[in-house]
Amino acid sequence: MKDLIEKINAEFETFKTESESLIEKGVKAAGPRARKSTLELEKLLKEFRKVSVEESKK
């Protein structure tokens, strides 16, 4: 679970960096990269939910 949380934090940092580039610097190529990060975050957060529920049942 610790590894999963580290992956979530890393992906969130990627999203944060890319979205800031898009908004503050106007880097248009950062938009698709930020959207890609949101899709990856969605997958990781679903996995976290699954693991968390399993852990709570123990």
Number of helices: 2
Strand content bin: under 5%
Largest sheet composition: none
Terminal Cα separation, in Å? 14 Å
Which structural class do you get from the secondary structure elements?
mainly alpha
Order of helices and strands: HH
Mean of residue pLDDT?
96
The shape is elongated
Low-confidence stretches: none
Instruction: Tell me the helix content.
Output: over 70%
Radius of gyration: 14 Å
Number of strands: 0
Features:
58 residues; 0% strand; mainly alpha
Description:
With 58 residues, the protein is mostly helical. Helices cover 88% and strands 0% of the residues. The chain is built from 2 helices and no strands. It starts with a helix and ends with a helix. The model has no long low-confidence stretch (mean pLDDT 96).
Write the layout of secondary structure elements.
Elements: H1 2-25, H2 30-56
Helix pairs in contact: 1-2
Précis, in short:
Helix content is 88%, strand content 0%.
